[in-house]
């Protein structure tokens, strides 16, 4: 497989984020995306295209979901250790296990698609991404304030990654990527329902 250039990968992410209608120009920071972008990939495959042929949407999705999960795992690790509410700690442990299992599948897919394992979005402000600033704020917070921060950040991560994964299901070209995206959506819907029932969720999430 020929390597896919960074501008195309960024364009693919913008396609994904545009499909879920985030309101305004979502995606990487303007400075990171000032270079001209190629036309978005087609949302449907031409007749006869193999199900294992990667489209720009597939590339954009797997290269966005991988760091999103990696960053969420860091926050969930903190929550499992430091949440004041025991039910939030238990939730963080179980969700971290699920996100790590997804990461294993995402990394396998990256390899199968011939893509590098590096984070092409490092330093970018992506919707639903737990940033290093978020992690610093979490480390500085304690007690109920820490719990509220975790609930908000993880809720946003789950919602956004579910939306982007739904776009992969409808617009992606690879059957294995669409299958994994469907599994992620199901897992996030279940986790969101549980998160909203946790103590303090009503106050934290408004």
UniProtKB/TrEMBL annotation:
The keyword Signal applies. Keywords: Signal. Gene3D superfamilies: 1.20.1260.10. Residues 1-31 form the signal peptide. Pfam families: DUF305 (PF03713). The keyword Signal applies. Residues 29-54 are annotated as: Disordered. InterPro entries: DUF305_CopM-like, Ferritin-like. Residues 58-197 form the DUF305 domain. It comes from the Bacteria. This is DUF305 domain-containing protein. It comes from Streptomyces globisporus.
């Amino acid at each position: 497989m020929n390597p896919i250039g960074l501008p195309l990968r960024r364009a693919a992410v913008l396609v994904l984020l545009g499909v879920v209608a985030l309101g305004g120009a979502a995606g990487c920071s303007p400075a990171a995306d000032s270079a001209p972008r190629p036309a978005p990939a087609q949302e449907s495959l031409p007749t006869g295209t193999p199900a294992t042929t990667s489209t720009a949407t597939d590339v954009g999705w797997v290269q966005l979901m991988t760091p999103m999960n990696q960053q969420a795992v860091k926050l969930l690790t903190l929550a499992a250790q430091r949440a004041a509410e025991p039910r939030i700690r238990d939730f963080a442990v179980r969700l971290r296990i699920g996100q790590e299992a997804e990461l294993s599948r995402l990394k396998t897919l990256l390899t199968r698609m011939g893509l590098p394992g590096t984070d092409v979005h490092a330093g970018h402000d992506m919707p639903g991404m737990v940033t290093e600033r978020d992690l610093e704020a979490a480390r500085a917070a304690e007690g109920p304030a820490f719990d509220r921060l975790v609930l908000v950040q993880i809720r946003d991560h789950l919602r956004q990654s579910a939306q982007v994964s739904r776009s992969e299901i409808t617009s992606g070209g690879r059957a294995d990527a669409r299958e994994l995206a469907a599994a992620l959506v199901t897992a996030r819907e279940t986790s969101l329902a549980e998160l909203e029932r946790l103590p303090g969720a009503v106050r934290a999430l408004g």
